Amino acid sequence: MISENIQIVREKIKEACKKSGRSENEITLINVSKTKTNSDIMEAYNFGERVFGENKVQELKDKIDSLPEDISWHMIGHLQRNKIKYIAGKVDLIHSVDTYRLAEAINIESKKKNIITPILIEVNVAEEMTKFGVRLEETEQLVREISELEAVKINGLMTIAPYVVDSEDNRRFFYKIRELAIDISRKNIDNVSMDVLSMGMSGDYQIAIEEGATIIRVGSAIFGDRNYSA
Ligand SMILES: *Cc1c(COP(=O)(O)O)cnc(C)c1O
Q: Is the CB of 160 under 6 A from ligand 1?
């Protein structure tokens, strides 16, 4: 079932790229495997998927330790400063940086390990009370502050759009993130790139691709519903 789902998602990525004149190579699909078992992940892996995302440090760490080494792991969830040490150097990208204090803690841990950690700035594009992320109008200032840190590198922006029934309703939010990234990149801030836009989930990834996403994060459309009671 998982492999069939991946096939469908890959097909829809292709459609969205075609519709918007983009190349499939520009899009990275993150298989969001939170709450799912190692055997579910291995089914996706054996079907050819190599990029996986998790939102909890302990779960991510356990999976990194027990699954194939050629998996590219992404931390997509809210991160507590005292847990950075468990994942620094083990993930290819941290998507969820929304405060200077968090970036500073990542910087300290990265220096200790003698690495530079690539990050994205999480933007709360719809200004939802329940979501993490910096406000649109405060993003550039935060980017400027974080850009001074030597051992973190801002690669772009991430957003979690609202839950909607009609994915078209999120188009304007994806558009806003793209515009913001273009605005910031025009400022030519040292040590900052705006090449990566992580946006679009199971319900709206095609719209996100049409609006410029370079990374989509797809969970339930691949692995099925999540069971949090387990
Ligand atoms: C769970 C999660 C996803 C995937 O959500 P689906 O709707 O199941 O595709 C994407 N991004 C983040 C940050 C998540 O926590």
A: yes
Query: What gap in Å lies between CA 192 and CA 148, rounded to an integer?
Result: 10
Q: With pLDDT > 90 as the criterion, what percentage of the chain qualifies?
A: 97
Q: Angle of helix 57-66 relative to helix 38-46, nearest 10 degrees?
A: 60
Percent of all residues in the chain with a pLDDT value above 70, rounded to a whole number: 99
Residue 218 Cβ inside 6 Å of ligand 1? The answer reads: yes
Distance 96 CA to ligand 1 centre (A): 12
pTM of the predicted model as reported, rounded to 2 decimal places: 0.97
- Residue 114: count other Cβ atoms within 10 Å of its Cβ: 8
Closest CA to 127 of 161, 151, 104: 161
Q: Whose CA is nearest to atom 12 of ligand 1?
A: 76
Give the Cα separation of 203 and 177 in Å (integer). 18
Average pLDDT over residues 125-130: 91
Per the CB < 8 A criterion, the answer to whether 7 and 199 are in contact is no
- What is the Å distance from ligand 1's center to 66 Cα? 22
Judge if the beta carbon of residue 219 lies within 6 A of ligand 1: yes
Compute the distance between CA of residue 160 and CA of residue 67 in angstroms, rounded to an integer: 27
pLDDT-derived band of residue 108, with 50, 70 and 90 as boundaries? Answer: very high
Helical H runs in 21-165? 38-46, 57-66, 84-87, 100-112, 139-146
Q: How do residues 27-40 score in pLDDT, each as one tens digit?
A: 999 999 999 999 99
